[in-house]
Structures are given as C-alpha cells and as structure tokens.
Amino acid sequence: MAASILPSKWQLPAAIRDRLGSQVGRQRAMSADDHLLLVLHAPPKPDDAQRTGRLFWRSPPGEWNSSTMGAGIHALTLHIEEYDEAVNRLDRQESAATTVEEYFQVLNALAPVHRAARNLHQVLQEARQLCPEDRDILQLRDRAYAIERNAELLFSETKNSLDYLRAKRGEEQVQASHHMAVAAHRLNLLAAFFFPIATLTAIFGVNLRHGYEEQFVPQLFLLTIGVGLLLGLLLTAIIARRAPYRPASKRVISPHSPREPRRT
Questions:
Q1: Do 58 and 47 form a contact (C-beta atoms < 8 A)?
Q2: 77-to-56, 73, 125, 165 alpha-carbon distances in Å
Q3: Number of helices (H) and strands (E), helices first, in the chain?
Q4: 259/248 Cα distance (integer angstroms)
Q5: Across the chain, which distance is largest between two alpha carbons, in Å?
Q6: Among candidate residues 94, 76, 90, 93, the one with its CA nearest the CA of residue 144
Q7: Element housing 161 (H / E)
Q8: pLDDT of 111-168, one tens digit each?
Q9: At 66, is the secondary structure helix, strand, or coil?
Q10: Using alpha carbons only, what angle is made at residue 118 by residues 13 and 71, rounded to the nearest 5 degrees?
C-alpha cells in the first residue's frame, strides 16, 4: 500500500485518510466527523514540474495544524501571505518591464500563481461552507479572493502591455519598410532617368574637348571632385528624406499602454 502524505501523528478519520494517496493532487477541502483537511499548494514557480503540497488540519475543537508551517491559524495565514507577496513581486517586475522578453517572463511566472491563487480561493470558499461558524476561515477566504483578483488584474495588464508592445514594434517595422521602399523607388527613378544617356555615352565614348584638360592641374580636378561630392551629399539628403507614412486603415492602437485601474 502506498504511503500517505499525511503526517503520522495526525489522528484523522478513515473517511479522509482513504481519499489521500502518495501524491498531493489538486487543491481541495475534505471534511468528516467535524475534521477539516485543506490540501493546498505552495506558490508555484515557472519551472516547477510538480506542485509542493501543504496540508492544514482543523480538529473538532477548532485547533489548526500544518504539515510544514507549524501550528495554529497563523500557519494558514502565512501560507496566504506568501501568495500575496508573490503577486506583489510580479507586480513590481511588471512595472519595471520595458521589453517583450521582460513582459513574457512576468506572464510565464504569473500564470501558475494565478491558477493556484484561484484554486486556493475556491478551497477556502468550500471550507467556509463546511465550517460556517469559523470566522478565521471567512477572513482568510476574503484575503484569498483579493489575491486572486490582484493576480487576475495583473495578468490582464501584463498581457495588454505585451500585446501593445508587439503591435508597436510591428508598426515601427512597417514604417521602416515603407521608408526603405520610398528610397528605393527614388533611386530607381534616378537610375531610369540617367540610364539612356549613360548607355549612349558608354557606347559612343563621348568625350568633348573643353580646353581645360591641361590647365589648372590639379586644382580643377580637385574642384570637380569636391563639387561632385557636394552634389552627392545633396542628392543623398533628398533621397533619404522620409515620406509621411499613411496606413491603409485607421489605427486603433493607443499611444499609451492600456492599463486597468490601480488594484485595491
């Protein structure tokens, strides 16, 4: 028979023990004979293949014990505070993110925390129904709901920011492609304009004598080179001038990152 995940010193009814195996499984609440057992998960990390289980047992007199975090209701409070700190840490990381990679890292870490926080709230809601007289469970359930809500809002904010940044980068690439196409078109026009005369002079070897071949050497040559370079710079500036970019359809992307109202 496989070993149970329950601590050996815990005296729980067989109806609860028989429902547990050697693996933690999903988060859930179980009750029998006024005993309440919460099977919860520690805040997960992005690369965790398996969830770390934490068990919290409420005995009929109302005393709490945990498998890893000590005794008393304070142990369950610390468990919930770890989720709160995990969400707050990712919130700070999202606020400092500026690149697609950084936003993706936040989403990758936030997704399992969000799912676990949602399941945690559901388990505490079920525990509240099983022990309606316990005010501590009521307060912890409300805290778990706030954490789940914060994680949900943060996930939405991060995903919107990531989508906006990707769309912005895509639009910048479209604009750059447009400017390059305009520049290439202008160069093609210049090449087409001068191609016939360049071809004819190359075929017939046109070389008019102007009388300056042997005068002002090398001043005239250097002056010609200088004028040619100056005209080349002027032509480059004209070609490099950016044409206004007009998209085919009206853009709906906001210039500011769409964020939810500040979480409370």
A1: no
A2: 11, 6, 15, 38
A3: 5, 4
A4: 27
A5: 118
A6: 76
A7: helix 135-204
A8: 999 999 999 999 999 999 999 999 999 999 999 999 999 999 999 999 998 888 888 8
A9: strand
A10: 45
Neighbour order of strands in the sheet with 35-41: 28-32, 35-41, 53-58, 64-66
* Cα–Cα distance for residue pair 117/87, rounded to 1 Å: 9
CA dist., res. 84 & res. 159, Å (int):
20
pLDDT in tens, 197-227: 777 777 777 677 777 767 777 887 788 788 8
Spatial separation of the C-alpha atoms in residues 264 and 262, rounded to whole Å: 6
Distance CA 166, CA 149 (A): 26
Q: CA gyration radius for the chain?
A: 36
DSSP state of 230: H
Cβ neighbours of residue 242 closer than 8 Å, sequence gap 6 or more: 179, 182
Q: Are 243 and 179 in contact (CB under 8 A)?
A: yes
For residue 51, give the 3-state DSSP assignment: coil
